[in-house]
Amino acid sequence: MRVTVAALLLYYIFSHIGLNVVYEAIGNIDTPQLCVAFLIAIIVELVVSYRLKRLTDSYNLNLSTMFVFEVNLATRFYGLFLPGGNVTALLIRIFKFTKERSQVASVVMSLLADRVVATLSLCLIGLLFWALSQPKPDRLWLITFALSTIGCLILAHIVFNQPQASQLGGMKRLLQRLSPYFWSKFSKLFHRHRPTGNKIFLNSFSLSLVAHLLGIICYWFIAQSLDMSLSLLVIAWIRSGIILLTLLPITIAGLGVREVSALLLLQPYGIEPDIIIAFSILVFATTIFGIGLLGGLTEAWRLTIGKQQTA
User: Fold this and answer.
1) Whose CA is closest to 78, among 63, 53, 98, 95?
2) Rg of the Cα trace of the chain?
3) What is the pTM of this model?
4) Integer distance in angstroms from the first to the last C-alpha of the chain?
5) Looking at the domain assignment, is residue 17 inside a domain?
6) Given this model, what pLDDT does residue 155 score?
């Protein structure tokens, strides 16, 4: 279904815009600026890996930053062609990070905390830069960022702190009604394995902000390679909007959704549709496909070294 949705969206886009004009736009890119964007994307992955490493340290998992970096790259690679998308990536991370069966819960909770912090900072950046850039689109995005931020703040409070039963309110009652057994098991697991403390949260949140700010610069270089006249303020909130929409698990690697969201967000700024689609394709090629190929190379190297050591 995800492949079908992606194919239909891409077919609709290219049937209206034309593949030739998009190909022509990509052919006129400034290659050095695109290379800079790719290098920044790699640095972003390093910062993200260090953030996750700090979270796993709270569980005494003893994972190095480079190991987490290699695993993150590998999951990007597998996510390009394996079904399941983010779910598949999550399962691969759990498998690779877990050395003993008793560590599974700690690994799952650290990955959950990492995802909550990353999404919270993404929404906050979108909200802040939307307000600073005075965008041309309507206030729908303001509402979207605001509601997403509130939701992520609630999740962050639950994950990083130990809320009282009264604070969980309706959520607890709903889960208890749906499955008392699941709630009992989840409650015990959650309170036994979670990254406690505001210090851990603030550290992870700070690293997440650094990663997203670098990501904004990466997008800006991609835009500059196509000679798109957009400021960093505009790029910042538009990047948050694009990534937020591509989190919806309806296509493979966000294909189709990324292009549609880019059209919706960038057309009000007077940018031609072919340039917008070219920008979206280059974003995918630089921050997802390129990083995935790098992950494939590191995974192949790791497997080769492993075979040599076994031999």
Assistant:
1) 95
2) 21
3) 0.85
4) 42
5) no
6) 84
